[in-house]
Amino acid sequence: MNRVTSVRVESGAWVCFDHPDFRGQQFVLEHGDYPDFYRWSRHDDHMGSCRPVGMHGEHFRLEIFEGCNFTGQCLEFKDDCPFLQSQGWAKNWVNAIKVYGDGTWVLYEEPNYRGRMYLVERGDFRSFSDWGAPSARVQSLRRVANFFQPPARRCPAATRSGPERGTVPAAARDSDRAK
After folding, report:
1. Which residue ranges make up each domain of the chain?
2. Which of 4, 67, 131, 160 has the largest count of CB atoms under 10 Å?
3. Which residues are bridge partners to 26 per DSSP?
């Protein structure tokens, strides 16, 4: 197992895994510096593999389903959602997902973009195991494109990314860009 104490992402977004061969817990890293592993993982300093996140465009559409194989309640999203239940989703789990268009999404186990992360790109995911999760728990979701918008176009400070979800605060990113 490879131990990593700090990371610098020069460009793009990367999905990293705590095990080799793109297995295990996922975490998404965007442009910026991560001086210690607590910025990207609450658990340990292991990083077994990484790959770039496909940034295909700006057409985002995702459907979540209550049951496996696209059964039960269905809800569509075209934008970030910090808490699925606030949009009428009665459960704290999602068993299947269809990703349309050319956008990439990050699913979070907890509300407000917290907890374990799972990346989903265009395609059909008939079960939570298809996106690499140990359970169907999903309570918030975010478009990957938001990771690259300049701070002036981001949501208000209350919803900005911060160390609690493994990202660098906007002020730190701005100082990096000025260099």
Report:
1. 7-52, 60-147
2. 131
3. 17, 117
- Asked whether the CA dihedral 67, 69, 73, 77 is positive or negative, the reply is positive
Measured CA to CA, the distance from residue 133 to residue 140 in angstroms comes to 14
Q: For the structural domain made of 60-147, what CATH number should be given?
A: 2.60.20.10
**Chain centre distance of CA 123:** 16
Query: Which tens digits make up the pLDDT trace of 147-158?
Result: 444 333 333 333
162 or 35, higher pLDDT: 35
pLDDT, averaged across the chain: 77
- CATH superfamily of domain region 7-52: Crystallins (2.60.20.10)
